[in-house]
Design brief:
Blueprint (H helix, E strand, L loop, with lengths): L1 E3 L5 E4 L1 E8 L1 H4 L7 H12 L4 E8 L3 H13 L4 E5 L10 H6 L4 E2 L1 H12 L12 E4 L2 E6 L3 H9 E3 L5 E4 L5 H7 L32
Parallel strand pairs: 3-4, 3-5, 5-8
Antiparallel strand pairs: 1-2, 6-7, 7-8, 9-10
Amino acid sequence: MSETSPNGGALLDAVKIGIVSISDRASTGVYEDKGLPALQDWLTRALQNTVTFEARLIPDEIPVISAALIELVDAGCSLVLTTGGTGPALRDVTPEATLAVAHKEMPGFGEQMRQISLKFVPTAILSRQVAVIRGSSLIINLPGQPKAIAETLEGLKDAQGQQVVNGIFAAVPYCIDLIGGPYLQTVDTVCKAFRPKTAIRAFATSPPAG
């Protein structure tokens, strides 16, 4: 839903985003979870919208993961980001749990994430991240490490700050437009979203002073 300024002008949509960290050990307190803080920090910096976060810290169990994703979609999260559980280990089942709740698959997100990670490590080919649509929500699996989360979301820049490789988040706002979700406005210095010119809207980002 769009917020409205005192003079009646449209403000940016308020959005609800689900963030899910999937780890047996972190969910049982063996070590501190770093995935949820990393996701919330990056999204807060990257979006101009007012964001409400729905956070979950859960173990690597397919039924638990799938149930959490369905719950977040049903709660009105237009975007759900997961972190962890996407490798080849026996307990890495996040992609399977995500595909189990999908109405549509969006393979381009996983392909691009692996391309970005391959710039750093050859083992990026072992990552199995997927992205799907359920209803009017986009669900994306992200890597488990905070540094890799930021790299895949915002892409790679050169020493002058010019974009060398696009991050996946550049395509997220328009994808959410197309499935009937809220209008996400990014902070260009963090990650500039791409939309066709006909899909760009003008918004006041804050109420006028006074």
